[in-house]
């Protein structure tokens, strides 16, 4: 069995002080994909930067204190890559990948956007560049006899069942028609699979992100924006996929929860 977890840590230094280290020590995952690490390697303690038993790949953003992705693997990768060949985004801490036997695993932090601002323009530019990369990645992997797994915070709720208050958010970044259509292209045109939803077709939820504002967590007023997106051959091997929601508000070490899947490979 092969288990993968993905989680937006909302600042790895802060998460490490609130329970991430204990979660890492107890997880059964073979690979962990992290987003929004917001830290340079030398800002992390050794227990977080180079945890025993893990091979880490850290990809911080050139903008200090922003973004950042990472992958921790129990098996040493045969190759690694930071960025996807984008002049604008390769140093922004938004994408990194590793190669394991028969598998490419990637950590993605897609921009969140904000309607009517440059942040939304940035998100749209990223999406426009990243879609062809996903297509080429799948083609290259297929030619090499490998599967692909892109984990991360995609910052888009694909369907109405993927967020609590969908009616009120139809004009909000993360649930715009054009963003949802882009996600549909990832699945319908490129042939990737939303592994969690394939294993758990019913909704609404479960969600993976809850605002720190108000009673969002207590009322389970969340969004499902953290995905494991796989090529069909790997997706078919998924046996279980779940959200590791904290038992209570005070037990959270991020505003996201890990999304974990076990594959029989």
TrEMBL record:
Pfam families: Exo_endo_phos (PF03372). GO terms for molecular function: double-stranded DNA 3'-5' DNA exonuclease activity; metal ion binding. One of its GO terms (biological process) is DNA repair. The record marks 256 as: Interaction with DNA substrate. The keyword Magnesium applies. Residues 6-256 form the Endonuclease/exonuclease/phosphatase domain. The active site is at residues 109, 153, 256. Its cofactor is Mg(2+); Mn(2+). Mg(2+) binds at residues 8, 36, 153, 155, 255-256. Its EC number is 3.1.11.2. The record marks 226 as: Important for catalytic activity. It is an enzyme of class 3 (hydrolase). InterPro entries: AP_endonuc_1 (IPR004808), Endo/exonu/phosph_ase_sf (IPR036691), Endo/exonuclease/phosphatase (IPR005135), ExoIII-like (IPR037493). Keywords: Hydrolase, Magnesium, Manganese, Metal-binding. The record marks 155 as: Transition state stabilizer. Probably binds two magnesium or manganese ions per subunit. Belongs to the DNA repair enzymes AP/ExoA family. NCBIfam families: exoDNase_III, xth. This is Exodeoxyribonuclease-3. The lineage of its organism: Bacteria, Bacillati, Actinomycetota, Actinomycetes, Pseudonocardiales.
